[in-house]
């Protein structure tokens, strides 16, 4: 991949990463409730899914998903239901003493798993990557090296952007620790997850 192609890919990656989506909602939700280091687990989960999506595209399976209406719909509905489920769980999370939420307490691997499932459940992301990546592939250069460069670029930018969302949200933890504030957070982020799920359910491949 030439420097010119890479700069173009970098610019597009920045625009995509900065566009708010379920990943940003997840990062802010965990950051606000549990702090950045817990949010980082979810962010790393998002990147794991992104690497898998890129691998599918390079293996040619992204084109299959883009062409198969049934596969797209099944994956889309699964992802939408998971986002709605997350939203309902967040909305209904109980409030304990000193603003603690037993239903939303940090669980080893839990936030990481959420990150993986949130990104993997979005088939439109795979279709988008399948349409985007070929425009920046240099046919005369080794594909494995280009795959590594693209994955490193996308993951690095996404980690920076999601970390920014999480850190910004975590700054409000001190003023958002009361029972009333926690309950409001649950309602807001629960509603955002449910809305994201419903929007995903209504999307098409185009």
UniProtKB/TrEMBL annotation:
<keyword id="KW-1133">Transmembrane helix</keyword>
<keyword id="KW-0472">Membrane</keyword>
<dbReference type="Pfam" id="PF01810">
    <property type="entry name" value="LysE"/>
</dbReference>
<comment type="similarity">
    <text>Belongs to the Rht family.</text>
</comment>
<dbReference type="GO" id="GO:0005886">
    <property type="term" value="C:plasma membrane"/>
</dbReference>
<keyword id="KW-0812">Transmembrane</keyword>
<feature type="transmembrane region" description="Helical">
    <location>
        <begin position="71"/>
        <end position="88"/>
    </location>
</feature>
<feature type="transmembrane region" description="Helical">
    <location>
        <begin position="147"/>
        <end position="168"/>
    </location>
</feature>
<feature type="transmembrane region" description="Helical">
    <location>
        <begin position="43"/>
        <end position="64"/>
    </location>
</feature>
<dbReference type="GO" id="GO:0042970">
    <property type="term" value="F:homoserine transmembrane transporter activity"/>
</dbReference>
<protein>
    <submittedName>
        <fullName>LysE family transporter</fullName>
    </submittedName>
</protein>
<dbReference type="InterPro" id="IPR001123">
    <property type="entry name" value="LeuE-type"/>
</dbReference>
<keyword id="KW-1003">Cell membrane</keyword>
<feature type="transmembrane region" description="Helical">
    <location>
        <begin position="188"/>
        <end position="204"/>
    </location>
</feature>
């Amino acid at each position: 991949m030439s420097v010119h192609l890479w700069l173009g890919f970098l610019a597009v990656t920045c625009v995509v990463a900065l566009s708010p989506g379920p990943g940003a909602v997840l990062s802010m939700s965990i950051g606000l409730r549990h702090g950045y280091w817990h949010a980082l687990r979810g962010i790393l989960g998002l990147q794991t899914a992104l690497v898998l999506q890129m691998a599918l595209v390079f293996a040619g399976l992204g084109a299959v998903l883009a062409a198969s209406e049934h596969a797209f719909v099944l994956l889309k509905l699964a992802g939408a239901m998971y986002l709605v489920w997350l939203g309902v769980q967040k909305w209904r999370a109980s409030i304990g003493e000193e603003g603690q939420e037993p239903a939303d307490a940090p669980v080893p691997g839990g936030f990481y798993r959420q990150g993986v499932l949130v990104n993997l459940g979005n088939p439109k992301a795979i279709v988008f990557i399948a349409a985007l990546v070929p425009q920046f592939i240099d046919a005369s250069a080794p594909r494995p090296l280009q795959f590594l460069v693209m994955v490193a670029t996308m993951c690095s930018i996404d980690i920076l952007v999601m970390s920014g969302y999480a850190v910004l949200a975590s700054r409000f933890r001190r003023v958002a620790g009361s029972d009333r504030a926690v309950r409001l957070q649950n309602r807001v982020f629960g509603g955002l997850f449910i809305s994201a799920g419903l929007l995903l359910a209504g999307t098409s491949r185009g």
